[in-house]
Structure formats: structure tokens, C-alpha cells
């Protein structure tokens, strides 16, 4: 009886070890192994259900006793592998465990320029897909399109890969080749694309004035977007007396939420709900954080039409959805991508980190964005065989002129 109680205690302590926080325990695995595992660092762990953790230690013990190359794999590597497996069990393509060296590389990647092909990558229906190729990028020049499924990268299958794992092997040294095997919607046979990596600089905004209409092409909701949008508005409406605005969000994969919220404030009355962040408390109950328009509302009476396609995602969908719902602004083009989750990067004690989904976006009408793209008011596709005509933009100009006449 005493031995059963001791074994139960050891199993409970073992659960704590994977989650990594604050005590010391000597644990001997099996009767026939001399390896001692020091389980470090567990505190403040509140498990809500009983978990039989014996299967983990049985597996660990079986590896120690039987695996041919046991001496080549350190205990630390096994713990990292277990942590990676724990996160993979969530079946969430945007949650990821990073070992210390990967955590450092991830921080470097998100903070500066990098060698890559210039395509925003995401996950849809279990596939790694191209959300959108960036303007003037190697991916765009090679002919990648929104919705392309990436089956292989340099001969490595992406099946079961997280988004980050796919990005990690697509990026690489400038001047080297990334070979992508792509399955395009409506096609039966995969295509192969050979793309030379370059330093990728993400574009922000272009604009032009056509027939008295300001056309703003927003490529990304980055830190420069607000300033450049302001300059476009001043030039378009104050200097050139434009009468309407076409906001082109096609192939815009998103960016900073705050930028999307601030840009919404140009079009909506102060205090108007733009989007809500729905997350959960530690006790499992839901909590909701609303984001309200707080801008100058300078364009709230200006006729607006929005262009979207399969490459419009995240912050693009938030801005377009808010204006469609709260101002009845017409959306023209194709159904958007449907990316609407929030990730948090949590640093861990040894330099590793956890990127984990903590919330999702909910539009003012209750629509959850993740997996549910925005439906356009007027659906129209461009002819891929004739790149000289932009049927979507032509339709947007037609509609905005009708709006101006009202």
C-alpha cells in the first residue's frame, strides 16, 4: 500500500515537471536503469482534472531501456520534444513551442528584414497555404497566388507542419533557391516553383486619383500605414477635391491591430464598436475586450467602397468587416481568408518560448473571423488569363460613382 501511494505521488510530481516551474525530486526510472532524472521547478500548478501521467514515464523508461541510439539524445532534448508534442496536441496551426535557439531566431525574424520569397503563409483546412504574395516580391514575380496549397518545400512534405515550421524552411540565405510544390485551386496536378530568396521589405501603401476618386492600395497594417494614409487623404480630398474613396485591401495579410482600429476611426463615429477580442479567464469563463473607434471621423460622410480577395486577412478583415457592418460600406471582390486569432509569445525560464493562441476576433454582428471569411456584397473575380484588366477595380469605380450620386 505504501508503495502504491509513493508511486502516485511521483506521478503527480511528474506532471509538474513538463510544465516547468519549482521543486527538486530524484526519480529513478525502472528497476533496470541507472539513470537518475532530477525533476526541477514546479510551483503553483492547479490541475482541474485527474491525469494518469504514467504513460509518459513508461514511454520514457522504455526508450531508456530499448532505443538503439539512446545515448545520442539528451534528456533536455526529450523534454523539448515532449513540450513540442504537448503544443501540437492542441491542433492549432498558430501555436508553437520554440527551443531556445528557435526562440532567438523567431525574435530576429519578426524584428527586421529577412531572406525569403515574400509571401504571407497561413493554415487553412489543414493545409499550409499562401495567404498572399507581397508586392514586387520573388513570390509575386514567380506567379504564386492567394490560396495556393504548399505541399512540399525543397522536397520536404509540409503535412502535419505548423505555419512557423513551414516558414522556417521557406526562409533562408539570400540568393539561394526555395523549391515549392504547389497545388492550385481547380487544378489536379501540382506545380513546381523555383524561387530565389531575397531580402524582403514589406510595402505599405500606394494611391492614385482617377475620375475624381481616390484609390488607396493598402498592402500592410504596419507602423507606417497611418502616416501614409493621412498623406493620401490630404492629397486626395483637400488638394484634389476627390469625391469618393476606393480602399483596396486585396492581398493585404494584416498587421498591427492598433493600426486597423485607428484607420477605422477615420470612417466611423467616435465610440463605434470595431471588433471584440474574446478570450478566456483561468476559470474557463469567457471575457470580452471591445475596441472602439476613437479617431477624427473625417471620412464618415465620404462614399467608400472596399476591395477584398482571398489574400485579405486578419487586420484587413477587421477593418472591412467593421465598415461593412457599421456603415453598410459595400465590399467587392471575393471571400476573404478568414484569419482571426490572437497569439501571445510567452518566454520560458531557459530561453525557450511558447507562442499560443489566446483569443479570437469577433465582429460587431457576432461573426467569429477565424475560419469564416467576409462575404462580399458584390462577388466578382478577375480573369487570371488576362492581367491587363482589373474587373474588380472597374466594378468598384462603377459602384462608388453610383454612391456619390445619391
Mean pLDDT: 86
Radius of gyration: 25 Å
Termini distance?
85 Å
Task: Say how many strands there are.
Answer: 21
Q: What's the main sheet like?
A: 6 strands, mixed
Specify the number of helices.
Answer: 10
Q: Which structural class should the secondary elements be placed in?
A: alpha+beta
Helical percent range? 25-40%
**Residue share in β-strands:** 25-35%
Q: Strands of the largest sheet, in order across it?
A: 12-13-14-17-18-21
Query: Globular, elongated, flat, extended or rod-shaped: what is the shape?
Result: globular
pLDDT below 50 for ≥5 consecutive residues: which ranges?
A: 2-34
Note the topology:
Blueprint: H1 2-19, E1 24-28, E2 36-40, H2 54-66, H3 75-88, E3 96-98, H4 100-111, E4 114-116, E5 119-124, E6 127-133, H5 138-142, E7 149-153, E8 156-157, H6 163-170, E9 177-183, E10 191-196, E11 198-200, E12 205-210, E13 213-218, H7 225-239, E14 244-248, H8 257-264, E15 273-280, E16 286-292, E17 304-308, H9 315-326, E18 330-333, E19 341-347, E20 353-362, E21 378-379, H10 391-405
Parallel strand pairs: 13-14, 14-17, 17-18, 18-21
Antiparallel strand pairs: 1-2, 3-20, 4-11, 5-6, 7-8, 7-9, 9-10, 12-13, 15-16, 15-20, 19-20
Helix pairs in contact: 8-9
Could you name the key traits of this structure?
single chain, 406 residues, alpha+beta, 6-stranded mixed sheet, 21 strands, 30% helix, 28% strand, globular, disordered N terminus
